[in-house]
From TrEMBL:
GO terms of molecular function: 8-hydroxy-5-deazaflavin:NADPH oxidoreductase activity; coenzyme F420 binding; cupric reductase (NADH) activity; ferric-chelate reductase (NADPH) activity; NADP binding; oxidoreductase activity, acting on NAD(P)H
Organism in which the protein naturally occurs: Haloquadratum walsbyi (strain DSM 16790 / HBSQ001)
Protein's name in the database: F420H2:NADP oxidoreductase
Enzyme nomenclature, EC number: 1.5.1.40
Gene expressing this chain: npdG
Gene Ontology biological-process entries: copper ion import; NADPH regeneration
GO cellular component, one term: plasma membrane
InterPro entries: NAD(P)-bd_dom_sf (IPR036291), NpdG (IPR010185), P5C_Rdtase_cat_N (IPR028939), STEAP_metalloreductase (IPR051267)
Amino acid sequence: MRLALLGGTGDIGEGLALRFGFHTNHDVVIGSRDPDKAHDAAEAYTDELNEQGVDTKITGFENEMAADRGEIVFLCVPPYHVADTVAVAADRLSSDDIIVTPAAGVKRDEDGFHYHPPSAGSVTALVADAAPDSVPVIGAFHNLAAGRLTNLDADLGIDTLLIGDDTTAKETIGDLAEDIDGLRALDAGGVANAAEVESLTPLLITVAQQNEDLHDLGVTFD
Ligand SMILES: NC(=O)c1ccc[n+]([C@@H]2O[C@H](COP(=O)([O-])OP(=O)(O)OC[C@H]3O[C@@H](n4cnc5c(N)ncnc54)[C@H](OP(=O)(O)O)[C@@H]3O)[C@@H](O)[C@H]2O)c1
């Protein structure tokens, strides 16, 4: 499959690009608002994978062009910019494509990190509202720490929760997630359940900060 990581120049984009490049044969395309930045990031990820012995080439384009090339389009951007990013990509998407959102609304104050959903109720719902009606939206990969993904020597051994109303699209993204060694995908319900899943993110950040040796932690359900 062709995977387009919009905003793939950032932390989770790098982690997903490296893991998909390392563990799978899917084509990875990096998107950015700036095509030069996308190209530079794609080159850096390709170099890293080549050094790891993987013969692959990741490419980079402006977000709209990356979306055009992708079948699975990831919104690897801060939560308050997901709707803008969908708007940029919308004309390039078809009903055969799937949008994936890993974003969670998190705010930080003097007491720490807290869940801060948008008025739609969750980022996944916000993306579903912004996306063309024919394009399914799946929330996934929220609870994966970018640092752990980026360290290709690190075993994952963690779960990711899938949210979405389109069962077929959810299965596709579940299979895609499990193409990454050590990642198990679990169905966590429909878009109406997205807030529960997204709210794990500030909890995980707090636990990682408060406990030694739990930096870049993940969760498993047992
Ligand atoms: N970091 C993690 O460990 C992690 C884990 C799971 C999920 N997530 C989620 O993934 C999303 C991205 O997180 P991140 O840590 O990768 O963020 P980030 O590094 O701060 O930003 C990612 C990319 O977003 C793009 N961006 C920034 N401002 C933008 C704007 N105004 N409009 C459109 N694009 C913009 C930038 O790409 P360009 O400048 O190249 O356009 C940037 O490289 C977040 O929603 C977060 O909740 C993060």
